[in-house]
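re: that chain from earlier
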Amino acid sequence: MGDRQKKTELFDQLARVGKALGNGKRLELLDLLSQGERSVEHLATTASLGLSTASAHLQVLKQAGLVTTRKEGTRIHYALAGMDIARLYAQLRTVATDHIPDVRHARDDYLRSGFQAGAPTVEQEVRRDELLALAATGAITVIDVRPAEEYQAAHIPGALSVPLEELQHRIAELPADQDIVAYCRGAYCVLAYDAVNQLRAQGLPARRLQDGMLEWRLAELPVDSGDAA
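^ sequence. v structure.
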């Protein structure tokens, strides 16, 4: 029948992952790390955390085997321990959304905050397979509206880096006679919603990738890295 004490120990060890995931800020850090390796300073700023608080959360994730570290001079960089961690995070998000009404309400409220000029219609969204087909013909311009560091870590091949905070003064760089498709971190990211609103307000034919970089990578689609274009 097996040793009851050893079985209890096994499940207690498994629970270390669950305990590490049981905090909203740590999930937000995993969401950010799903875009690529980041320094503690970058993670703290983006997640609106103090440096020591961010470090403490990251240590919990490291102790649970969910992230790894790399030291560069005095700076520490964190990364997911593997894409299986990104898949675990995405599945947790899906299960929570499917089974907890409060999660759906919170998701909708947050995404609605990025609509401003109104929620994109189905016609204003592009599926991943559709984007691949259109990009192959050169019929669209794809822009990555995440921070430049995230673009450098991983981006859709051929996409231009146009961080959201730079979009207004760079609109003149974008073609007026071609559809523009904006994308950001993932299905729960509002940056692309905001970008589409700004572009359409200027009369440009803009659409949004239906999800984002997290889902693109999990689908094992082509990815480039390097300096922003």
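The chain has two domains: 4-86, 109-218.
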